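Risk register update: the risk that structure generation would not scale has been downgraded. Supporting records follow, first protein first.
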Amino acid sequence: MSTTSESILFISGAGLRAWVWDDVRADLDVPSAVAPRPATGSASVRDHAEAAIAAVGPGSFTVVAHSIGGVVASEILGLVPERVRGVLGLSAVIPRPGGSFVSAMPRPNRWVLPLLLRLSGTRPPESVLRRGLGDGLDEEPLDRVVSEFTPESRQLYLDRVAGHRWTGRTGYVVTSQDRELPRALQQRFAQQLGGDWCEELATGHLPMLQQPHETAAAIRRFVAATAVERL
């Protein structure tokens, strides 16, 4: 793929296939890549981050991280900070440096989740996927998201990310009708990510499918703001 400074690396939420970004990527019409899932079923957060970096190729890039993809983005900042132009969280979980997805959750979830992951695995029941993850979607994309949902490694939820000193441009898009991550929790993650660029979309947890054109427009505005700041 092209390695211009406009390259975007998309990091998906748990269980989602690369196709969920198709409409957004087509609307943006810039070089981009979707982070792949590592081949091993016991992949660590670092394995995910290294696979993502390999997918985007050499050169600098902007990260757009969705949901648990925020954890992977945090690890990328510890590995190749000099290559990252900006980080945009899209209803993203942002742990503190040295934290994990689980530790970023409010109480009592941070205590209950490890037990649930050990007993039930990382694929929620279909009813939970439809009611939470897929809320707001039309029937066709909802059915596809549910049928193709891929369980993740437990380590993706449990591993602690590396610390970093990256201080580049950051932004956050809050999804105001989200049943997976309530608005107040997203706002906390936005503060944790830092920066003062924040927008809101009136969608559930999958804005790239529910409002792809609006999602792409928000990404364009963030990239443009990042470019202006660097001048």
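Supporting record for the second protein:
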Amino acid sequence: MVLTVVMARVWRIWHARNSNTFEGTFIPVMKTIDFIKEDMFIWLKNRSKLSPLIWEKWLLFDVANLS
């Protein structure tokens, strides 16, 4: 799960940087954080052997109570 957090952060920070550099669009930090949470949810839901994840619980972002 930690690796997924790192990968999602790197992916979205890189994407925000490229959007700003090449397209001139600024993505606010809070929007980037929301994108990171969405990416992690989708990646873990589709690739993890954890019990089925629920979006409403995920929004609370309490990783200790995901199961």
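Helices lie at 2-23, 29-47, 55-60. On this basis the risk owner (M.S.) recommends closing the item.
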